[in-house]
Design a protein that fits this description.
InterPro entries: APOBEC/CMP_deaminase_Zn-bd, CMP_dCMP_dom, Cytidine_deaminase-like, MafB19-deam, tRNA_aden_deaminase. The N and C termini lie far apart (about 65 Å). This protein has about 160 residues and is an alpha/beta fold. The protein has a single domain, classed as Cytidine Deaminase, domain 2. The chain has a five-stranded mixed sheet. Strand 3 (about 75-80), helix 4 and strand 4 (about 100-105) form a beta-alpha-beta unit. The chain has five helices and five strands. Helix 1 (about 5-20) runs parallel beside helix 5 and helix 3 (about 55-70) packs parallel to helix 4.
Length: about 160
């Protein structure tokens, strides 16, 4: 067992999510841990990288594969601030990670139990253990605050445009 607990690693993922926010991306962060060592980390970057696959989880899994020089990420745990989508969940199955620990649920696109359950689907050739709700309130608040700020900015822009017409 790791000397660090799930909350420790989720706080690391939250710091990465804040980095995404600073870059104008939806604030989701992910850290991939094997044993007591970070082997990959990522934050959402699809806008900046013009890449629809540049989700936090995919970035962390890619780094992990390079760190281990293997596409199989055996005995690894992925910590992510938001429940993964179907694409990311599929990548987790293919990578053979051991565990997923996530913070906030995603009722609209979550594929770890909310909308779908890709990770524990009985037809999959690998199943991932899931721990959900770690620092859920903090993870959800970060996302809510981001989208609130984005709505306020759009409203201010519309008002500014109206006043110049």
């Amino acid at each position: 067992m790791s000397e660090y607990n799930d909350e420790h690693w989720m706080r690391h993922a939250l710091a990465l999510a804040r980095r995404a926010w600073e870059e104008g991306e939806v604030p989701v962060g992910a850290v991939l841990v094997q044993g007591n060592r970070v082997i990959g980390e990522g934050w959402n970057r699809p806008i900046g990288q013009h890449d629809p696959t540049a989700h936090a989880e995919i970035m962390a899994l890619r780094q992990g594969g390079k760190a281990l020089e293997n596409y199989r990420l055996i005995d690894a745990t992925l910590y992510v601030t938001l429940e993964p989508c179907a694409m990311c969940a599929g990548a987790m199955v293919h990578s053979r990670i051991d565990r997923l620990v996530f913070g906030a649920r995603d009722e609209k696109t979550g594929a770890a139990g909310s909308l779908l359950d890709v990770l524990r689907h009985p037809g999959m050739n690998h199943q991932v253990a899931i721990v959900e709700g770690v620092l859920a309130a903090e993870c959800a608040a970060l996302l809510s605050n981001f989208f609130r700020q984005r709505r306020e900015q759009k409203k201010a822009l519309r008002l500014a445009q109206k006043s110049t017409q």
